[in-house]
């Protein structure tokens, strides 16, 4: 969903029944929403949020299974589309703040990585678990190296481990950890600055 209030554009991942998992359609809708926010003169700051308990669980399992039947060219186009989304968010002409109310895993952690700032709840977990099923998170690696450095990036990308919100903040993946009941107010106040 896309909403604007008080010069803040909020883009909300809205597939709570699927833990806001990424699919080809979701990626395309996100690219369109970020393009809209960039062009919207009423929007000065963008907040990326999510409905439900999870921020984003990464790729939709049915979508991953479909990729196994795709041609090389189709999978290359799919990867290029996700890369374009990450690059679009990273280079957006407006500040992007992630409001993370639950786990951000695999591609969901990638979304958090490319935002300019991020707030999360203490209960959230972060990690690039796709390596456990043979996917190397190469697309996000470029952005993660810049954000947290080579040693910590390798630890996250190659181990597949999940880390707690506090550790994510300690290594610079996340900016602030705040209680759930304060999350929306803290993000709104920061965006207002």
Explain what you see.
This protein has 193 residues and is of the alpha/beta class. The protein contains 8 helices and 9 strands. It has a 6-stranded mixed β-sheet, sandwiched between helices. The radius of gyration is 16 Å and the shape is globular. The model has no long low-confidence stretch (mean pLDDT 94).
Which short descriptors sum up this protein?
193 residues, alpha/beta, 6-stranded mixed beta sheet, 3-stranded mixed beta sheet, 8 helices, 18% strand
The helical percent reads 40-55%
Series of H and E elements: EEHEHHEEHEEHHEHEH
Seen as an oligomer or otherwise, the chain set is single chain
Residue share in β-strands: 15-25%
Question: Uncertain regions: pLDDT < 50 for 5+ in a row?
Answer: none
Roughly how many Å is the radius of gyration?
A: 16 Å
| Measured distance between first and last alpha carbons | 24 Å
Count, helices: 8
Query: Shape from CA axes?
Result: globular
Task: Sum this structure up briefly.
The chain has 193 residues and is α/β, with parallel strands linked by helices. Helix content is 47%, strand content 18%.
Give the arrangement of secondary structure elements:
Layout: E1 2-5, E2 8-13, H1 24-39, E3 45-50, H2 61-67, H3 72-91, E4 95-100, E5 104-105, H4 107-114, E6 117-120, E7 125-127, H5 138-148, H6 150-159, E8 163-164, H7 165-170, E9 176-177, H8 180-192
Parallel strand pairs: 2-3, 3-4, 4-6, 5-7, 6-9
Antiparallel strand pairs: 1-2, 7-8
